[in-house]
Design a protein that fits this description.
The complex is a heterodimer. By secondary structure, chain A is mainly beta. Chain A contains no helices and 11 strands. In chain A, strand 6 and strand 7 form a beta hairpin. The chains are: A mainly beta, B mainly beta.
């Protein structure tokens, strides 16, 4: 059974810092990996989708990398802002398209 | 921009009562998913529909939960009777074809509190 772990569970940083969120998964036979953002009490917003044939994806200040062989993905946030405060979830996608989520990293960016 | 709609946004009920949640996926999306998210955890898939057919409901507690998507468009998730442990966020998502690797689009969720 696929297990997805996110470290750290919570992170507090001052505004302007660059930071890295980590996601690891136990079964490397994945199709894609997706990063989501979730604001308190809200639904999920897709940030980046990395296909298994890709090594990374970039969107603005966000960069996500994928290393299938080691079962790891990282989400890099450059020049963090208070508006980035949210929970960040990674999900792995097998061929069957059923997402398996990690527990999330709760990020707080302090002004 | 098209969005997944869910209602109600919040629901408070007493244990042993029945509750129902509604989801309207993005128009034209064939695949619909219901997830349950316990506070502080990631979402877990309850049921996946492809059009009106159930593709996977292996994680759905069938003694008390039921889900339907009769016309292959909107969907209803029901809990009867509700238990304290059912308190969670219930998320609905949809994707165009249900093929491997598709982005899933999530609704705002229904937050359930069982007293």
């Amino acid at each position: 059974k696929q297990e997805v772990t996110q470290i750290p569970a919570a992170l507090s940083v001052p505004e302007g810092e660059n930071l890295v969120l980590n996601c690891s998964f136990t079964d490397s036979a994945i199709y894609n990996l997706q990063w989501f953002r979730q604001d308190p009490g809200k639904g999920l917003t897709s940030l980046l989708l990395i296909q298994s044939s890709q090594r990374e994806q970039t969107s603005g200040r966000l960069n996500a990398s994928l290393d299938k062989s080691s079962g790891r993905s990282t989400l890099y946030i450059a020049a963090s802002q208070p508006g980035d405060s949210a929970t960040y979830l990674c999900a792995v996608i097998p061929a069957g398209n059923m997402l398996t989520f990690g527990g999330g990293t709760r990020l707080m960016v302090k002004p | 921009e098209a969005e997944v709609a869910q209602s109600p946004r919040y629901k408070i009920t007493e244990k042993s009562q029945a509750v129902a949640f509604w989801c309207d996926p993005i128009s034209g999306h064939a695949t619909l998913y219901w997830y349950r998210q316990i506070l502080g955890q990631g979402p877990e898939l309850l049921v996946q529909f492809q059009d009106e057919s159930v593709v996977d409901d292996s994680q759905l507690p069938k003694d008390r939960f039921s889900a339907e998507r009769l016309k292959g468009v909107d969907s209803t998730l029901k809990i009867q009777p509700a238990e304290l442990g059912d308190s969670a966020m219930y998320l609905c998502a949809s994707s165009p074809l249900g093929q491997g690797g598709e982005t899933q689009y999530f609704g705002p969720g229904t937050r359930l509190l069982v007293l």
